[in-house]
Amino acid sequence: MTSLQLFFIALAWLLGGFVHGVAAVGGGMVAMPIATTFTGAREAILISCLTGLIIPLALSVLYRRHILLREVLWLSAGCIPGIPAGVALLTVLSGSVLLFGVGTMLIVFVLWQMCSHSVRTTLPFHPAAALLAGFVGAFVTACTSLGGPILAMYAAFRGWGKEQTLASTGMFFNIMNLGLIALQWKAGLYTAELLGAVALSLPCAVAGVLISMPVVRRMPQKTFRKVLLAMIFASGLMLLGRAVA
Description:
The protein is 81% helix and 0% strand. It is built from twelve helices and no strands. Helix 1 packs antiparallel against helix 2. The mean pLDDT is 84.
């Protein structure tokens, strides 16, 4: 990668960290599609997997008292088959297929968010449901880096509170990331060039979160949520356009 490419990828994660800091979601959804403009789809996904480590770690520490440990354990059990399946798919899919899949997921996520207020939180806890959600979340994260929407849907149907969602999904991704990175590394997906991009992107993501703090105090959350969904929807359309071009 050239210095200019690295600069814009890091800039994308500065924006991603800012968005996640304000909205508690959307860091990878914003940064990863932008990064695909300056590097390949597979490389952008891997950078997102590594750079995104810092956010769930921070959330699980800040909200540790609200972790739903029993459900996290069952969700995490789904990672055992989900991670290798997703990594295997990542190694064989073409760039255009990856872009199409991620673009479709972003658009579905926006549509989900628009109608999620009508979701009835009547799903009782059941190990099989948690196991399935963990499998799908791990699989999607391993091959696209965007498994967050899957866990957000599960949390909504379960009726988790905000703190429980932030803490429990954060802890799930901490556990999953350990296995994911180990398998991606074993599969030979990480290169020195890729790690160099992560070394620049990671502090930029942290800086974005820090910059977001004064904005959170001033900007109405409802207003920013609309802007965020519009950005994610536009990113999804952009990826679909690149996939079929």
